From TrEMBL:
Organism: Penelope pileata
Name this protein carries in UniProt: Dephospho-CoA kinase domain-containing protein
A Gene Ontology molecular function term of the record: ATP binding
InterPro entries hit by this protein: Depp_CoAkinase (IPR001977), P-loop_NTPase (IPR027417)
GO biological process assignments: coenzyme A biosynthetic process
Gene expressing this chain: Dcakd
Family in the record: Belongs to the CoaE family.
Pfam families: CoaE
Gene Ontology CC: one annotated term: cytoplasm
Presence of the UniProt keyword rRNA-binding in the record: no
Source lineage: Eukaryota, Metazoa, Chordata, Craniata, Vertebrata
UniProt key word Aminoacyl-tRNA synthetase: no
UniProt keyword annotations, A-Z: ATP-binding, Membrane, Nucleotide-binding, Transmembrane, Transmembrane helix
Parts of the chain that traverse the membrane: 205-226
Length: 231
């Protein structure tokens, strides 16, 4: 059976990290695009060298690492600089994600979950996904959680929510929606259902069982050989 990709996204403060933690607990392979994006701009990496070359050393901290805030300020006000930064970092991020997908494939995972914050904003990625999952909560809940989490005033929180595609719109684009309005337990039940659905291919199950039998068989054989050897 072929391996497939599952895209997972949410909105700011919609509870995506809660869902990711639950999926990891269930043993799912989850690749975090944000973590990779931070790693590819570390000193000595290819993207780092290109960023310094184009944006100058004034965007560096004393430690030599990139000052994300300084870089953020530049690209926020200059769209062409933002495009340049994306052109430098995106290929490196995609290369690293592909490397991790292949690693999980070799390890025998049937599917890999890609945790991508802007999955529905960057439409070109969704076509690679067999399923797309949105962690949803209603706008009022989202605002309240964001204000509480980051200690923001209402206007500030509203501005951050407004900078993203509305969850209602993403909801129409997703193949599966996890409603995270309620209690943690209700979200957990939905995650378990999703997990069962993603795992729910019989040929995959038989392959796993056959592999399990083979491993047990080989283990038994190894024990016998070892006993013969030591006796």
């Amino acid at each position: 059976s072929t391996m497939f990709l599952v895209g997972l996204s949410g909105g700011i403060a919609s509870g995506k990290s809660t869902v990711v933690a639950m999926l990891r607990e269930l043993g799912c392979a989850v690749i975090d695009a944000d973590v990779i994006a931070r790693e590819v701009v570390q000193p000595r990496r290819k993207a780092y060298q290109q960023i310094v070359q184009h944006f100058g050393t004034e965007i560096l901290l004393e430690s030599g690492e990139i000052n994300r805030q300084a870089l953020g300020n530049i690209i926020f006000s200059q769209p062409e600089k933002r495009r340049l930064l994306n052109a430098i970092t995106h290929p490196e991020i995609q290369k690293e994600m592909l490397k991790q997908v292949l690693k999980y494939f070799v390890l025998g995972y049937r599917y890999v979950i890609l945790d991508i914050p802007l999955l529905f904003e960057t439409r070109r990625l969704t076509r690679f996904m067999k399923h797309t999952v949105l962690v949803y909560c209603d706008p009022q809940t989202q605002l309240a959680r964001l204000m509480q989490r980051d200690g923001l005033a209402r206007a500030e929180a509203e501005a951050r929510v407004a900078s993203q595609l509305p969850l209602g719109e993403k909801r129409r684009l997703a193949t599966h929606v996890l409603d995270n309005n309620g209690e943690r337990e209700s979200t957990r039940r939905q995650v378990l259902r999703l997990h069962a659905l993603l795992e729910g291919s019989w040929d995959f199950l038989w392959a796993r069982l056959a592999l399990g039998a083979a491993v047990v068989g080989l283990g038994g054989l190894a024990c016998l050989l070892l006993q013969r050897f030591v006796s």
